[in-house]
Each structure stands twice: as C-alpha cells, then as structure tokens.
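Task 17 of the worksheet. Students: predict the tertiary structure of the chain below and write it out as structure tokens. Keep your answer in the requested format; marks are given for formatting as well as content.
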Amino acid sequence: MTEGEAQGLKEAVPNLRDITVIGGGPTGLFALFYAGMRGISARLVDSLPDLGGQLTALYPEKYVFDVPGFPRVLAKDLAKSFVEQALQFPHEIRLGEWVRDLIRKEGQFILTTDKGAYPTRTLLIAAGKGAFNPRRLKAPGFDEFWEKGVYPHVRDPEQLRGKRVLIVGGGDSAFDWALGLKDV
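Model answer:
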C-alpha cells in the first residue's frame, strides 16, 4: 500500500490507527514511544484507571532493582518515566476500558471494549499478567468496607501512618509489606 492509499484509508475510516496496544504497563508504554518515534499513529487501551501496569497498581512504593541504568528505582517513579516518554507523542489513551471482542474486517481489526469500538491496522497485546482481580474475603462486612478501610493493595503508605494495619496473606508480598510498613 502506498502512502497515499494509506492516507485515503485513514480518511475513509474515522479513528483508524496504525497500531492499537492492549496494556498500559512498561511494554505497552514503550510500544507507544516506539510508534511515536516512527511516526506511526497509535492508541492504547487498558482496563486499569492509570498507566503503569503492575508498577503502579501493585507495588508503587517498592524498589525495582533490575532495570538497566538504575541501581534501584521506586516502581511509581519508573512508571512515571515510562508514561512521560510515551506521551511525548499525541497518542490516544483509553483507560478503564475492558476489551470485549476483536473482529477482522476488510484488512483491519475492530477492537471492541465496554465503551466503544476502535479500528486498527495492527494489534499488540502487551497485557502482562492481565487485569488484576484481587481475591475477596468471604467475611461479614467485607464488601461494605471495600476501598473504605479494606484495600487490595498499598498505593500510598503515608495514608496508613499511625494506623493499626492488618495484612491478610501468606505470600512474599504480604511479608514484604509487613516489613515495609513497620515504621509507618
């Protein structure tokens, strides 16, 4: 397809993008950056309300030690850098949208979410572990306090300063947070 034909197709199909990325974590954000560097139109769709993937959703206050160029960096700061790098270019960002369907039609894809349909030439799935659905306790009163004192993740330890905290879980993450919060 020539450049003129590609431009004609863009005009014929509103909101057509060269690439649509599913996933707003490090890989998806780097894909946006790379697309921008190459002059490729792109959009990103993620079910989470913020960019950054696991870095911001699961452990924003934990250090990451295995990134080239950084002896250690807070996950939220690393995510902020990824977002800043990717958003140098005018990409469409669709947050809080769940992908429902993918249809191939006339040489392109139509990605459907719970909030809209998006035509794209190419699809990149950079979903990592996928959407996070924490297990909910089956205990009286649990649902009424969800996100009002009962939280699936620690986003800002300072919000817990001086409070009594109970961490439920038996894995490495629970142990790490118990240690991380002991002085808070």
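Marker's comment: The mean pLDDT is 85. The beta strands are 17-22, 42-46, 63-64, 73-74, 92-95, 99-105, 108-113, 117-125.
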